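Morning F.,

Quick status update on the modeling queue. The single chain you submitted on Monday has been processed. Sequence for confirmation:
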Amino acid sequence: MEAGSDHEARYEVRREAASAVVIAVAVLIALAFMSWKNDWVLVELPWWSWLVLALPGLVLCVDLWLGARQLGFAGTRVAALVLLVSIVLGNLVGVAFLVGALVATSTDDLSGGHLLFTTAAIWSVNVIVFGLCYWDIDDGGPFERANNERSTPDFRFPQDETPEVAPPDWKPRVWDYIFVALTSASAFSPTDTMPLTLKAKLLVGVEEVVSLVLIVLVTARAVSVLGT
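Structure tokens below.
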């Protein structure tokens, strides 16, 4: 395969993630707008801090668009993974902001609506970015899955167990992995899809811990604030 066609093929399989990345960026932008409009502040951080956390996702969106013109810079898995890791770290920083607000802010100064909206936004982004991580690490990445049979999967889907019920030549797509992330974040355990490798289990474990903190700790505080 020629270098140019190989570059284009790698971007073609990665562009299926663009819609999910756009949703994650839009959620953080909406959170920044609501923080600006309602003067919401967490641990003295300005409203535009959420835009900074959205920046890696925005860069990834632009890069996926430029890739069609062979101008993108994340054509390799390593570069793309660096951007995905940046998005995950940014979301973890957002979680830290919330926990810091719980510790440092009194009930009188902390709006229940503020906490609930912020929690919902970060939880949603958490699901999307971990789904993208699962999509990018499974069985060598999307390019390898598109061109080869699933030989060493990191996640085992129901269709892998019972291929007779799957469409011909079925392969998991980005929304399959986001569904895996959604069920992990909701049930705090694997449901229909099992992580098989250590790296998959580590990622799922981190996602579940983050979700547990958001749902149990932050939501409980927000409900108590609303009650006052």
